[in-house]
Amino acid sequence: MCGSIGTRIRKYLDERRNHRTRLVTKDGRCNIEYGNVKYSKHFAFLADFWTTLVEARWRFVFFNFTATHTLTWFIFGLLWYWIVRNNGDLTWQNPSPDHTPCVWGVAGLTTAYLYSLETQTTIGYGVRALTPHCPGAVALVTIQSVLGAIINCFMCGLIMAKISLPKKRAKTISFSPMAVISPRNDYLCLSIRVANLRKSLMIGSQIYGKLLRTTTTQDGETIIMDQVNIDFMVDAGKDNLFFICPLTLHHIIDKSSPFFEVAVDTLHNQDFELVVFLDGTAESTSASCQVRTSYIPREIMWGYSFLPVISRSRDNKYRVDFSNFSKVVPVATAHCAYCFHNIKGHHHHSREGQDNPGFEVIEITESQDATKM
């Protein structure tokens, strides 16, 4: 029991440590914060208020929706109260029996607020109504109706914009949680897998990567976030992917690759982050979106390959088995890229090792006076 709790605690702390050291989380969020921003720069967010509202959380959108309508109802309620008060329509003003009010049924602040709400929302219960004897009241009802329509259009557009954000489409595109390194077509490749969970296509899909690491220049300058381009490709090329089914994307580890100096026993000791981007346009909405994920060294498996996910059924239809999407199998792989390219016979180096032809097999006979343990 205690051992199980301790294991869970260590696993939780390890996940928290990995989360803090990532620049991009597995679901694509950027783990970065800004400091020492000048106060005047915050007004730039108010100037670009539409983007600020669209990117706000849903609870703030609902709060703004409720507060905007309630505040305008109350402000116009005060204006209606001021009009009927100046006309002597209120109950405590004791209007004469032949008095003509500006608004029927408004005799106090509460009824003025209710009339403002009914006017802006076009409810019209029939108890309170405007009379044509007050020009100021006619002008105010016109202004409130136009302003209410503008507010409704703005809020509806804001909600629709948030619902149709392209990043929601990105939720239905999934990357494999692990990357693998294995030989493929006489090349040593780093491979990842990506799937589109919807039947609608992603048009013009392009995938690329950035390797983030800390480097030191020849002048002694330390670059905390040095970015190196990582090219990915499928068998048909790297441009305009036909993203109708899960794809396995490959990065060839050659002498120009930053992974060329990495070996199986040094991979997990490296300090880097591989960020993978997928750009495309949704077929159904024509909205451009970007999907991101990242892999740290412990999420790259050396000497493994993905299981196939596409098969053909008996009725001659293609079938995608998502149960094999993240499953891998061990394959014979050289223990480093240098060995794969330069040492003959290492193209299919097993993970358990390989016999060295330079050694001779000799028999050692046990001496009679040897000490047995």
Structural commentary:
A hairpin with a 5-residue loop joins strand 9 and strand 10. The strands form five sheets. Strands 3, 4, 5, 8 and 11 form a five-stranded mixed beta sheet that branches. This protein has a four-stranded antiparallel beta sheet with strand order 7-6-9-10. The chain is of the alpha+beta class. Residues 349-373 have low confidence and may be disordered. Helix 4 packs across helix 5 and helix 4 runs antiparallel to helix 6. The chain has helices at residues 2-21, 43-47, 49-54, 58-86, 109-120, 135-163, 166-169, 337-342; strands spanning 103-104, 129-130, 173-175, 179-184, 187-196, 202-216, 222-231, 247-252, 272-282, 288-295, 300-302, 304-306, 310-312, 318-320, 328-330. It folds into two domains: 42-162, Helix Hairpins (Orthogonal Bundle), CATH 1.10.287; 167-340, G protein-activated inward rectifier potassium channel 1 (Immunoglobulin-like, Sandwich). The chain is 30% helix and 24% strand. The chain has eight helices and 15 strands. The longest helix has 29 residues, at 58-86. Residues 24-166 form the Potassium channel inwardly rectifying transmembrane domain. One of its GO terms (molecular function) is ATP-activated inward rectifier potassium channel activity. InterPro entries: Ig_E-set, IRK_C, K_chnl_inward-rec_Kir, K_chnl_inward-rec_Kir1.1, K_chnl_inward-rec_Kir_cyto, Kir_TM.
